[in-house]
Amino acid sequence: MFLDSTGARLAQDSELDVNSLLGARLTLMLGRHGVTWKVCLSLRSKRGGQELASRVFTYGRSCDLRLFELIRPIRQMLACTEDLDAYVQIEALEGGSLRARLLVRRYATRLEVDSTNGAVQYPPNAFFPEQGLLKQLEVLALRITHPEEGPEVLTRAWSKEDCQERWWFNPQTRPAGAWLIYPDSKSRSAFRPLAWSTQGSELAQQPVGDGLRASLAISSTSARIAALTNSVAIMTSDPGNPDWLLLEELLMHTAHLPLAGLDIWRVFARHPDAMIMALLHLEGFAEHVAQRITEELPFEWLLASPQDWVNSVTALRSYNEREDGERGVRALKRSLESIKQAMRLSQPGTALGIDLASHLAMDSPTNETKLLLANAGVLDDLLQNALSEGDNNPLQSLLRHPNHGDMWPNELHQDISKFISSAAGKTIFSKIPSVLADYKRLTIAFPMWVGYEVARGAARDWLAQPSRLHALRTYQSFDPAWFDAAYHFSIVHFFKSA
Fold first, then answer.
1. How far is CA 388 from the centre of its chain?
2. Taking the mean position of all CA atoms in its chain, how far away is CA 316?
3. Of the chain's two ends, which shows fewer C-beta atoms within 10 Å, N or C?
4. What is the extent of the structural domain holding 417?
């Protein structure tokens, strides 16, 4: 049975947000048949909808599981889809029989719109924050097409007739446009952000303009995404586009919200080159967004190709040089070095792309990039030796994991097997000592397959496939040291053919 942080039993199919798992527990008691328990996580786009990804954990015949241990895998699964309303279903199975189930979302609650009275409110049966937090909760409204105006704190509506939590929005008094209603930074998951479009009076109406501002104002979701995609493409190719300043204003007020809550970040996540440009050029992005991207959106930095990094840095150098001469170039070089140091720790898969961009666009070569561009075969041999030779090499450490096939990942086993038997797979696998167990070969090959996909320019397709993103994160978390080393070896190995 599931217990909340106070020890109270949760009803079947209760809904919580991810942060509410802190302090919650799952008690797995010894059953009549004495079989082991399994806890299954499954990502779904809507209640009863198609399963997008799954993961199974095996426990003993009895266990008291602290649910905070599942927060990271649940966040990784939610980040495989841009659907803000997706959820992860936790099922406790005893011998194949369902004993308890819990649903976990980015948000547990959606506010209702009371258009008659011009207010937003918690539904009667909503999952409320703790009373103390609820009293401190501030609800903000921001005209998303004009973020420079700043957000307004909505007035709480006190009612003697009912106990509902309600806030006045009063749409008839506001300028026309698309408004985002969202919680303050201390209560980021208190409820799901919602949009409210107002018509406004003739005197209050203002021209929306063009570019990003006009794209944000479109009411139809599909048309808005299409327009935002076009706006982001223009911004990515032109660092001097004024829409970057508009996006900075928007980021300033909404950086605390889960990134899937804003369409603009969903569009950025589909385009690695746009993400790189934002990282290097958008003020506040590196500090407040970059490290959260892979935990909140279907995006992985290592799926950006070295060419994406080179193109972005080349465009930024031209812009900085045009705007501020050599001083601007030196500032970009310092910024790139700072980002390189930060990303090397958290996202080591970006090292080659950043180093190549520094070499080719900023005239700052490294020993590795000089060797790669002059004699890739020598570097290939050096990395292969570091991967599988000597004491405590990454391959040796990987093979020390327990020899139980059910403890090793096996996602996408058919696709990985196809890569292993392909011409490219045979070429790179010929450099690795033979391993007999098929389940180990899958884990050995997966990061090499990813490197091959990135090198040949096919990795962008992975961003639209939750099953592939989930597999990538599963294999990477199983043995990060092996994954990072093998991926780097692979992308260098296939660089010359790319």
1. 32
2. 25
3. C
4. 375-493
pLDDT surpassing 50 at residue 497: no
Under 8 Å between Cβ of 495 and 376: yes
Give the count of domains, the chain.
4
What's 461's DSSP letter?
G
Give the total residue count for the chain.
Answer: 498
Taking the CA atoms of residue 364, residue 368, residue 373 and residue 374 in that order, the dihedral angle to the nearest 10 degrees is: 110
Task: Count CB atoms within 10 A of the CB of residue 4.
Answer: 16
Query: Under the phi-then-psi rule, with left for phi > 0, alpha for psi from -120 to 50, and beta for the rest, what region is 121?
Result: beta
- SS3 of residue 303 by DSSP: helix
**CA 116 to the chain's CA centroid:** 37
Span 55-81, mean pLDDT?
90
E-assigned strands of 67-173?
87-94, 97-105, 112-114, 119-121, 139-143, 152-153, 155-157, 166-168
Residues 198 and 220 in one domain: no
What tokens were used for 283?
């003020």
Instruction: Please tell me what DSSP assigns to residue 340.
Output: H
Taking the C-alpha atoms of residue 292 and residue 96, their distance in angstroms, rounded to an integer, is 36
Residue 86 token pair: 């997706």
Determine, yes or no, domain membership for 364. no
Percent of residues, the chain, with pLDDT higher than 70: 94
Q: How far apart are CA 31 and CA 52, in angstroms?
A: 31
Q: Does residue 359 form part of some domain?
A: no
Task: Give the position of tokens 């958008």.
Answer: 282
Taking only the tens place, the pLDDT of each residue in 420-467 is 999 999 999 888 888 767 889 999 999 999 999 999 888 888 998 999
| 228 lies in the same domain as 341 | yes
